[in-house]
Design brief:
By secondary structure, the protein is mainly alpha-helical. The chain has helices spanning 8-13, 17-31, 43-59, 69-94, 97-104, 108-124, 127-138, 143-150, 154-186. The chain is built from nine helices and no strands. The termini are far apart.
């Protein structure tokens, strides 16, 4: 399939750096989503895999030029990320020692700090927010699954979760700021 001359698909096939940058931004928006934080060490490799799949798809004419390329690219990025998460989960279930180390993080101390921060976030959140965050982050449920469980539209779940995270972030920022200022003043 041939793509319009100035389309991003055509420019990407012609190795235009601006088009490549745009596709990388679209991909990064997915790879940096909270759902895929566990894959942060793999992001460069996942980015390369997504770009390779997109280019191959464009070369073979599998992308319909009348559709939105951004959504197409982000769909591929989600697929690649979910596949990588599945590999990590299978490796963990199989009990591979090196995979367990990779999933557990850098040190016992940092895992302890992360758990304490997660507890603090859940303590600060309202009951409804706690439930949403628990379902999304701990039970790894999708927006659709949470929406069905709560009997609300999936868009509502997305916006509520965003507002919950935003409010907890603001609470943490406000509570942490005075301590930082006092600590900075004490050093003088």
């Amino acid at each position: 399939m041939s793509y319009a001359e100035q389309s991003i698909a055509r420019r990407l096939l012609d190795e235009d750096p601006d088009a490549l940058g745009e596709v990388m931004r679209w991909t990064s928006a997915i790879l940096t989503a909270p759902k895929f934080w566990a894959l942060r060490e793999e992001r460069p490799d996942l980015l390369q895999e997504v770009l390779a799949r997109v280019l191959e798809s464009l070369r073979q004419g599998r992308f319909d030029g009348s559709c939105d390329l951004r959504l197409y690219v982000q769909g591929i990025a989600r697929f690649v990320s979910l596949k990588a998460l599945g590999r990590r989960r299978r490796a963990l279930r199989m009990g591979e020692a090196e995979s367990l180390e990779a999933l557990s993080g850098p040190s016992h101390e940092s895992r302890f700090i992360q758990r304490q921060l997660a507890r603090r976030v859940l303590d600060l959140a309202s009951r409804d927010c706690r439930e949403l965050m628990y379902l999304y982050f701990y039970e790894d449920r999708s927006y659709v699954e949470i929406a069905a469980r709560l009997d609300v539209p999936s868009g509502t779940v997305k916006s509520r979760l965003f507002r919950c995270l935003q409010s907890v972030h603001q609470l943490l920022s406000r509570r942490g700021a005075p301590r930082l200022r006092r600590g900075a003043g004490a050093k003088r």
